[in-house]
Design goal:
By secondary structure, this protein is an alpha/beta fold. The protein contains 16 helices and 12 strands. The strands form 3 sheets. A 7-stranded mixed sheet has the order 1-7-6-5-4-2-3, with helices on both faces. Strands 10-12-11 form a 3-stranded antiparallel sheet, covered by helices on one side. A two-stranded antiparallel ribbon has the order 8-9.
Length: about 475
Amino acid sequence: MTKLIFEKSIKGMNGITLTDEELNTDFLPQEFLRKESPELPEVSELEAMRHFKELSDKNFCVESGFYPLGSCTMKYNPKVNEYLASLEGFTSLHPLQNDEDAQGALELMYKLQEALKKVTGMDAITLQGSAGAHGELCGMMIVKHYFKVNNQPQRTKVIIPDSAHGTNPASAGMCGFDIVKVDSNKKGQVDVDHLKKLYEEHKDEIAAIMMTNPNTLGLFEENISEISKIAHANGSLLYYDGANFNAIMGITTPKQMGFDIVHLNLHKTFSTPHGGGGPGSGPVGVVESLKEFLPVPVIDFDGEKYIRKYNLKNTIGKIKEFQGNFGVLVKAYAYILMKGDKLKQASQDAVLNANYLKEKLKEYYELPYDYTCMHEFVLSGDKQKANGVHTLEIAKRLMDYKFHPPTVYFPLIVSEAMMIEPTETENKARLDEFIDVMKNIAEEVKNTPQNVLSAPHCTPVKRVDETNAARHLDLRYKKDSM
C-alpha cells in the first residue's frame, strides 16, 4: 500500500536549499506572516520523485490501456505534439507581446482558424474557448446577443433533445434561456413531429435548437436537413455541439447540415490530451451573418502581417483572457498538419471500430437501438440486471482486466447504459481483447455473479462509497488522522 508522503517524512531531511542568506521580510505586512513554520513533509529530492512516480504508476491513461470512454473521444495523443508545443519560441512567448514580435504564434493561430473553417464549413472562428462547455457558453451568448441586436427579446427558449449532453441545458440556462425538451423517436433520433408541435406551441419564443450529430447514442440524425428548415423558417438558430465531431471529419460539415454555430473540442477530436480538468480548447465557428458577434480578438491577416482584430461591430466581448489555451492550439494544429487530407480516414476508422464492437457485443448485452452507428454506440445492462448485476458492477469488473470502463448511465434515455467509443487509434487486436473480456464478464454474471459484484479485485483502490464521497468531500490531509 502506498504511504502518504507525510508518512515517508524524516526529521531534518530536505531535498533542496533555496538560499544560504537570511530572507528580509520587513516589507511584508505582519498579519500575513506565519507565526510558525508550515508542517511540510521532510524528504529528499529522490524520495519525492519516487513518491510521485509511484502515484503516477497507479493512474490509468490511454498510454497504459484501452480507454473507451463514450462521448469523450479519448484517442492517443502523438508525442510529437507535446514536443512541438514545448518549443521555446512558443513557451517563452508572453501573451502581451506586441503583434510584431509574435508573428509565428499568430500565424499558427490564423492557419488553425482557416483549417477549422474548412472542416466545419463555418465562415469565421474564435479560438478563445477553454473547453466544450465554454464553447457552448460562448455560442449561447452569441445567440442571446444576436436576438437582442435584432430586437427580438421574446426569444427566450432553447430546444434541446432528451438525449443531449448535460452541458447543453446548463450552458443555455446560464445565459438565461428556458429549456424546452424535444423527445427522441423509436430510432433514437429527434422526433420531428414533436419538434413541429413545440414550434407551433412556442412560435417566435424559440431562439435556437442545440443538437449533437451524430447524437449521444452514436446515431446520425437522418432528418437534420428537415430540422434545419423548421428552425430557420421560424427565424431561430441551429447550434452544433461538436463533442462527436470525430465521426464526421472530412465526410460532411455542420454547415452542410444547416447549422449556424458550432463548437469543437480540440482536446478530443484533434488529439490534444484532456481529462482531470484540462487544459482544453473549445473554438467556436459561425456563419457569415454571425461573424461580427464573435468574441475578440480574432486573428486576421492584412496581406503583410498577422494581427489581433478587435473591431467587430456586435462582439460579445471576451470570454477568456488573451487568446485561449495556446499550448492546446499548437498540438491541435500539429495533429491537423500530420493528418493532412487523411482526417477523413480517421473518422472512417473510428466509425468502423465502433460498428465492429457493436456487432460483436450485441449478442451478450442488450442493444436498444440496433442500427448502424457512427463513432460510438450504447449498450444496456438490463439483461445482466435481471441476474442482480448492474452496469456499475460491470464497469468495476472491467478494471480488473486493465480496461478503463466506458461511460455508464448516460445517455439517460437508456436504462443501465454503457456508452462505448473505441476511437480510430485502437487496432483490431486490442478491440478483440476488449470483446473477449466483455464476453467473459457476461458469462460471469450468469455463472459466478459474486465475482462481478465484489469487483474490482486488482486495483490499488477497491470499491469505495461513491455517494458518500461525492456528498462529503475530504480532500485535505489532516495530521491527526494518521
